[in-house]
Amino acid sequence: MINAEYVLFAGVLGVILLDLLRIGLKRQTNNIIHYVTFGILILSFITELVFGNMNVEFFSSVQYSYFVNGFVLFISVAVYAYLLIDTPEHSTYIDVLYLFAVLGATLVIISSNFISLLIAIEMISIASYSLVFFQKTLGRMEATMKYVAISFISVIILIFGISLIYAGAGTLSFGKVSNVDYLPFILGVGIVIAGLAFKATIVPFHMWAPDVYESSNSAVTAFLVSVSKTAGLLALIRVFFFGFQVSSSFVSIVFFGLAIATIFFATFLASVQDRIKRLLAYSSIAQAGFAFIGLALLNRNGVSASIFYIFSFAVADALVFLAYKIFEDKKIIYLKDANRMPRISKIATAAMFIGVLSLFGLPPTIGFFGKLLIFSALLAHGYVSLVIALFAILLFSTFYYANILMKMDLSDIHSSQNEGQNIRIRMKEVILVLLMIAIFAGVMFAGI
Questions:
Q1: Which of 209, 246, 261, 426 has the fewest CB atoms within 10 Å, measured from its CB?
Q2: Do residues 369 and 305 touch, judged by C-beta distance below 8 A?
Q3: What one-character-per-residue DSSP string does 10-58 give?
Q4: Average pLDDT for residues 238-264, to the nearest whole number?
């Protein structure tokens, strides 16, 4: 049966061959290759909608048989379309790397053993390094080097943890653990958690993320915070829900500790930022913590809530970073400059407003239902005090979310761009409108 992975893999090879043909014919322009890449992404999304079936009991039982792959591909299409509008003259290697990263994200979702999972994660990482640096500046070079160094350390940690798991369990396949040598196995599980936590930006393994997110092109940041981070969180679900449940008590305790630390630490740091993009970066890290809370339950109810929450914050993060790219181009860097946003683009301002509301979790946005599912799962298992604490930190987070919203001067809605700029901005606004629709329409997948 045809699936999205086949389309993406064939697309990578096709784009490479087209570029070689272009070079052989000595053609300077590569616009046709960009449109082919966009077509491949759309075709993979359509293929997933028509033929998608992960054949995993959990997903089918909650009607998510191809939901996860579908939303990853949907966001990937939206981000690439935006990137194509923003930088239409980018090099062909960006197209190859982007398809490569998306392919890696979809392979993470269907991985059945540690070898395929490790390969898929590294596909995303290797592609992401170059995406961060594709517009070559000193700041982006520094961010890329930090990203490469941390990722190199994380993959070494991950390989070491996998080797210990193999020593303890005698297998690298998920769901085939019976008798284990407990000491190396449990050490391996702890180390694998650390290795995957780097990818998911979980505290204290998040240190690379704020600098990389802030220094990257905001369209690339949108990809990192939505697709790449999603892959890291889904990898944890693949391993510790579908895989090694023999260690569920230990894993659950560790997950709760890391999730709570992530939420509290990232929320506090977001509240003291005066640069909009860095504030949004820490907010994205806090959102990963909320998804991690649901996963920490390691049961059907909690993981279902976690998967929906990953979807909700991925769409909202993609929306706010893509909207912010329009403002960043006009040198709106600090919170004090947010009052100029409506003069540049009313739709981008509305997108930023709705995206922030969803990240905070106000109804009727998808973020509200994501947090509702997380809280419901926790309450169903008696974590009342934890829900109260999380609600308190949500109230605290209103400080920095409201700081953005209140500084937008919504009464100043006139535009000051010339016609050429307006055309490009209008094309970007179409993508923002589609994501805003997803913020509300995505509620249908909540299962409430």
A1: 426
A2: no
A3: HHHHHHHHHHHHHHHTT----HHHHHHHHHHHHHHHHHHHHH-----HH
A4: 80
The C-alpha atoms of residue 326 and residue 427 are separated, in whole angstroms, by 11
CA distance 224 to 218: 10
Q: How far is CA 240 from CA 199, 298, 370, 382, in A?
A: 15, 8, 21, 22
- How many alpha carbons fall within 13 Å on the CB side of residue 299? 8
Mean pLDDT computed over 224-228: 90
Q: What is the pLDDT of residues 144-202, one digit of tens each?
A: 888 888 888 888 999 998 898 888 877 778 766 666 677 787 888 888 888 888 888 89
Cα-flanking dihedrals φ and ψ of residue 410, to 5°? -70, -10
pLDDT digits (tens, 9 = 90+) for 363-397: 888 989 999 999 999 998 888 998 999 889 888 88
Q: How far apart are CA 169 and CA 27, in angstroms?
A: 55
Give the position of tokens 């935006």.
82
Tell me the per-residue pLDDT of 85-116, one tens digit each, with 9 for 90 and over.
Answer: 988 878 888 889 999 999 999 888 888 888 88
Distance from chain centroid for Cα 88: 24
Q: Tokens standing for 230?
A: 């999603």
d(CA 68, CA 310): 9
C-alpha 308/C-alpha 45 separation (Å) is: 19
Highest mean pLDDT among 5-14, 134-143, 205-214, 341-350: 5-14
Helix, strand and coil percent figures for the chain, each rounded to 5: 80, 0, 20
331 Cβ contact list (under 8 Å, min separation 6)? 337
Q: How far apart are CA 289 and CA 209, in angstroms?
A: 14
Its pTM stands at 0.90
For residue 20, give the amino acid letter: L
What's phi and psi for 408, nearest 5 deg? -75, 120
**What amino acid occupies position 422?**
N
Residue 388 φ/ψ, nearest 5 degrees: -60, -45
| Dihedral (Cα; 229, 210, 340, 343), 10-degree rounding | -30
The answer to whether the CB of 303 falls within 8 A of the CB of 294 is: yes
* Inter-CA distances, 398 with 249, 294, 360, 394, 402, Å: 34, 22, 7, 7, 5
Bridge partners (DSSP) listed for residue 275: 334
Q: Which two tokens stand for residue 141?
A: 């070079």
